[in-house]
Specification:
The chain is α+β, with helices and mostly antiparallel strands. The protein is built from 13 helices and 32 strands.
Length: 537
C-alpha cells in the first residue's frame, strides 16, 4: 500500500474500534441535524468525529467533505470525501452491511485517486489507487462477463424508487436491495453482481458524492463503468448539494438492456406484444392478420387483444416484450407508452393516427419488415409532472391543467425556471413536448415542432386576452403552472390519466429521464406532416 492508503486503513481501524464501543440501543439515537439536512445518529457522529480527530492529531494534509459536518477547509489541495457510516439503518438494525467509505481527490469524482472501503461488521476491506487496480483483502478485483440470461442486479428499491426499478427487478433473473450503496457498487466491482441501478423519482433520495466516491474508483479500477441515466459517463463535484441517478455496470451493454435501448430479448428471438383497442371496427380481423403475419414468433397479448382472440392476456405494464404492436389510433399508442417502455409501432385503425406507422392495408408488409429488422427506433423525450411531492404518469404528448367545471374560467400563473413568464385567465394550460406539438397543442394554434428539437410548448387554452400566446422554451427548463384561484382543476396526461388539483396548488413539469421509443420505417417528420395533416384535412 501507498502511504495514503495506509492512512485510510488506519482511519478505518479507528472507526471500527470506536463504533464497537457504542451500546447497541444508542446506535440509532438522533443527536443533531447533519449538513445534508437529515438527522445525525449516534453511530454516524462517533464515526465522523473519529475520522476528524485522527486527521488533526496526525497532521494529515486533507480537507474533509463529510455527510454530517459538511466541508472542512484545512487549506490543502486534496479532500477526503467521507461517508462515516454508509448504511446507517443497517447498522441500527444489526444488519452486517454498513461501511466507512473514504476517497481522496481534488474536486470531483473523476479525479479521485485513492479509495478505501471497510465493512464495519465483517472487517472486509476494499481499496484502490488510480491506475493500479482494485483489491479486496489483498485479492485483485475484476468485474464479471455479462450474460443477459443470468443477470444479477443490485437495485435501489427504497421509498423514493422510480417505478422503472421495480419493472427492472421483474426482468432480470435475480435482484437485491441492500440499503448500502457503497457495498452494492463494490459487489459489481468484485464480480458478484452485474450492475447497480439507482433511480429515485425523488431528487432528495438520489445519490450524493459522499455515498459512492470510494466505490466509484473501486469499480473503475476493476474494469467497470458508471453512467448517468442519459448514458453519459457519470461525474459529480465534491459537494453535498448535487445528487444523481445512475447505473454502475460491469459491461456497457448492460446500459442498453436496462434502459431498453435495443430490441433484444432474453430468449432466442424477439418477443412481440399486441395491444388492441376493442372499440375499433374490424379489430378482430386486424388482430388475426397480425398474428398470422407473425406466425412462429412469440406473441404476448394485452387483455383486450386476448379477449378479442380468445387467448390469455395481461396488463400492458406487465408485458415484457421487445416490440409492441398496437391496433387503434394515437390514443392506443399513448396508453401503451404510458404503461410500458418497449418500442412501439402502431397500426392505424383510428382517425388521423399521426403517431402510427402502418396502415391497415399494409399489416403483412409491416410485420415482415419487423421480422427482418428493417426499421429504426426513434427516441423521444417524455414529460414528468408532479404536485405537492406527488409524481404522476409520464407524458409523451402533453399534460394539461384545466378547469374541473364546464364553461368555468380559471386564473393561472406560469413560471419558467421559477421566473414568472405569464399570468392568464383561461380554460387551462397545456405543456406539450415536441412530439405533442402535432396534437392538442396544434389545435390551439401552437407551432409544429420537429421532434429532434428539444423544447416544450406552453399553450393557453381559450385565453381571455388575445395577446396570450404560446411559449416555446428549452426542454431542460422547469415549467410551473400555479392554479391561482381557490377553485379546483384537473391534470390530464396524454388524455389517458386524470388527477384532481386543488385550488392554489402548483404543478411542476420537467423533462423525464424516460424515453418514448417509436419504431419507424424511415418516413421523415415533414413527409408525415404533409401526408397525415396537410393532405388529409
Amino acid at each position: 500500500m501507498t502511504d495514503m492508503l495506509d492512512i485510510l486503513r488506519d482511519i478505518a481501524d479507528a472507526v471500527v474500534k470506536a463504533v464497537g464501543l457504542i451500546p447497541g440501543p444508542e446506535l440509532g439515537k438522533d443527536i443533531e441535524m447533519g449538513a445534508d439536512g437529515t438527522p445525525t445518529s449516534e453511530v454516524d457522529k462517533v464515526a465522523e468525529n473519529t475520522v476528524l480527530d485522527y486527521i488533526v492529531r496526525n497532521n494529515v494534509p486533507l480537507n474533509v467533505l463529510s455527510e454530517e459536518i459538511g466541508y472542512v477547509d484545512n487549506g490543502f489541495e486534496d479532500t477526503l470525501v467521507l461517508d462515516p457510516i454508509d448504511g446507517t439503518s443497517n447498522a441500527i438494525a444489526g444488519v452486517p452491511m454498513y461501511t466507512v467509505s473514504m476517497a481522496v481527490g481534488k474536486s470531483r469524482l473523476s479525479d479521485v485517486r485513492y479509495a478505501y472501503l471497510r465493512n464495519v461488521m465483517t472487517g472486509e476491506s476494499m481499496w484502490a489507487e488510480k491506475g493500479k487496480g482494485a483489491y479486496k483483502d489483498g485479492r485483485r478485483m475484476h468485474v464479471r462477463k455479462l450474460d443477459e440470461r443470468d443477470l444479477f442486479m443490485m437495485i435501489y428499491l427504497g421509498n423514493g424508487a422510480d417505478p422503472s426499478a421495480f419493472e427492472l427487478a421483474k426482468r432480470v433473473k435475480s435482484s437485491r436491495s441492500y440499503g448500502c450503496a457503497s457495498l452494492e457498487m463494490e459487489l459489481v466491482a468484485e464480480g458478484q453482481a452485474d450492475g447497480f441501478y439507482m433511480n429515485s423519482e425523488r431528487y432528495a433520495r438520489a445519490i450524493r458524492v459522499v455515498d459512492i466516491a470510494a466505490s466509484y474508483l473501486l469499480l473503475m479500477e476493476a474494469g467497470g463503468h458508471i453512467y448517468d441515466l442519459k448514458g453519459e459517463e457519470m461525474d459529480m463535484p465534491f459537494n453535498l448539494e448535487s445528487r444523481s441517478n445512475f447505473l454502475a455496470c460491469a459491461d456497457p451493454a448492460l446500459f442498453d438492456f436496462v434502459m431498453k435501448r435495443r430490441a433484444k430479448s432474453m430468449g432466442d428471438g424477439p418477443v412481440f406484444g399486441l395491444v388492441a383497442n376493442p372499440n375499433v371496427p374490424n379489430v378482430r380481423k386486424y388482430a388475426e392478420r397480425v398474428v398470422s403475419a407473425l406466425e412462429g414468433e412469440k406473441i404476448i397479448f394485452d387483455k383486450s387483444a386476448g379477449n378479442i382472440l380468445g387467448k390469455p392476456g395481461m396488463e400492458i405494464c406487465d408485458m415484457w416484450v421487445d416490440i409492441m404492436v398496437t391496433i387503434g389510433g394515437d390514443g392506443t399508442i399513448l396508453r401503451t407508452l404510458m404503461n410500458n417502455s418497449a418500442p412501439v409501432v402502431g397500426i392505424n385503425a383510428g382517425g388521423v393516427g399521426f403517431l402510427a406507422e402502418i396502415s391497415v392495408d399494409d399489416i403483412e408488409e409491416g410485420m415482415a419488415r419487423l421480422r427482418r429488422g428493417e426499421y429504426t427506433v426513434d427516441e423521444r423525450f417524455k414529460l414528468d409532472s408532479s404536485s405537492e411531492g406527488e409524481m404522476y404518469e409520464t407524458a409523451v404528448n402533453e399534460a394539461v391543467v384545466h378547469t374541473d367545471s364546464v364553461a368555468k374560467i380559471r386564473q393561472f400563473k406560469v413560471y419558467v425556471d421559477d421566473k414568472l413568464a405569464t399570468e392568464v385567465r383561461a380554460d387551462g394550460i397545456i405543456v406539450s413536448t415536441s412530439t405533442g406539438s402535432t396534437g392538442y397543442a396544434m389545435s390551439l394554434g401552437a407551432p409544429l415542432i420537429d421532434p429532434k428539437v428539444n423544447a416544450f410548448v406552453i399553450v393557453p387554452m381559450a385565453a381571455y386576452k388575445f395577446a396570450s400566446r404560446p411559449f416555446v422554451v428549452p426542454s431542460d427548463s422547469k415549467v410551473t403552472v400555479e392554479c391561482v384561484l381557490d377553485k379546483g382543476c384537473l391534470l390530464v396526461i396524454d388524455g389517458q390519466a386524470e388527477h384532481p388539483i386543488e385550488g392554489g396548488a402548483k404543478v411542476d413539469f420537467v423533462r423525464s429521464a424516460e424515453k418514448a421509443r417509436f419504431i419507424t420505417f424511415r418516413q421523415d417528420f415533414y413527409s408525415r406532416v404533409r401526408n397525415k395533416l396537410v393532405n388529409a384535412i
